[in-house]
Amino acid sequence: LAYQLESEIAAILTGLGASYAGARVLVGTSGPGFSLMAESLGFAGMAEIPIVIVLAQRYGPSTGLPTHTGQGDLRFAMHASQGEFPRFIVAPGDVRETIYYTQVLLNLTEKFQVPGIILIDRCLAESYFTFDDIDGLEVDIDRGKIVEEVKRKYKRYEITDDGVSPLAFPGTPNAVVRINSHEHDEEGISSEDPKVAVSMSDKRLRKLKFMREEIKKYTPVKVYGDKESKNAIIFWGSVKGPVLDAYRLLERDGISCRLVQILFFSPFPDSEVLDSLKGAEMIISVENNATSQLVSVLREFVGVSVSYRVNKYDGRPFTPIDVYEAVMKVMRK
User: Fold this and answer.
1) Are strands 308-311 and 221-225 parallel, antiparallel or unpaired?
2) Which candidate, 50, 142, 274, 318, has a CA 20 to 30 Å from the CA of 329?
3) Structural domain count of the chain
4) What are the beta bridge partners of residue 309?
């Protein structure tokens, strides 16, 4: 079922209502619309309602260049809405990955009862691609701790070892299913008791440990090229295509390098990123933004410094020649 609402606020709130009722929900938007959705993203975090948001980045801020591309929303997606709560963020690099990771994220958000964001851009969202087959793209549905019948008093926010509570939908026999955007106790009843606040915050954040383990099943970091090279090009999102094509030109010219693609940004796969960069002496970042947001994320989570930055922020995607010439300029230094 596809349903078009009158605004982004209506879209995400309708989506959250449908998710509460038992549907698997995905909503789509770009940067300005995501700004309007930010408060409701926090509602999803507090009420522990699973939902997937596709954020197709464009050049900004504000209206910016509404029909052109960019990668300026990474930090915004990682920190959108007030307060602290876990979320999944995945940034596919091509259409095949988008198809695959959309299914993965629908599973993960339901399994852990958190919101998730698929971070793409205009280049991926509004371009045409072809590929030969769909082998390996199908993902079995896993809806997590859904209960179909309750035999004891149901607590929507029951405290558990992994932070994930049994999930019943309205109409489940013997279950009163309360959700609440206010801080609440295990039954979903509003509370301002400081002990309850700490306990429930700890419950929600406890999921992160298990979320980090879970994403290891889905290749959160990919490495291409010469994996032993001391030169590394690190990137994310739709920059993948131009980087892989540029690698062929670099290889032709005798330039050895490894290509590191980060797919998950929340939770951040710190150990996998460090492993992928082990032994690299020169690291070059390639991003469709002006402020090198990936670079700041690397510094924050793994303490890695990038040697050179390649940025493009004119609303146009990278071409392979853009990447090739920028890397060759660095290599000649």
Assistant:
1) unpaired
2) 274
3) 2
4) 285
Q: What is the C-alpha separation between 48 and 106, in angstroms, rounded?
A: 14
CA dihedral in degrees (203, 162, 108, 92; nearest 10)? 80
Q: Are residues 109 and 141 in the same domain?
A: yes
Kindly give the residue spans of alpha helices, DSSP state H, lying in the chain: 8-21, 31-47, 74-79, 95-112, 122-125, 194-215, 240-252, 270-277, 293-302, 320-331
Q: What is the DSSP letter of 38?
A: H
Closest CA to 89 of 102, 78, 100, 73: 78
- Single pTM value for the model: 0.96
Neighbours of 84 (CB within 10 A): 11
Tell me, letter by letter, the H, E, C secondary structure of 255-294: CCCEEEEECEEECCCHHHHHHHHCCCCEEEEEECCCCCHH
At position 12, the amino acid (one-letter code) is I
Nearest to 145 by CA among 123, 126, 162: 162
Least confident piece of the model among 99-103, 128-132, 289-293: 128-132
pLDDT by residue (tens digit) across 32-78? 999 999 999 999 999 999 999 999 999 999 999 999 999 999 999 99
Last residue of a domain, one of 194, 218, 242: 218
- What CATH number is given to the structural domain containing 326? 3.40.50.920
Residue 333's pLDDT is 77
Helix/strand number for the chain, H first, E second: 10, 10
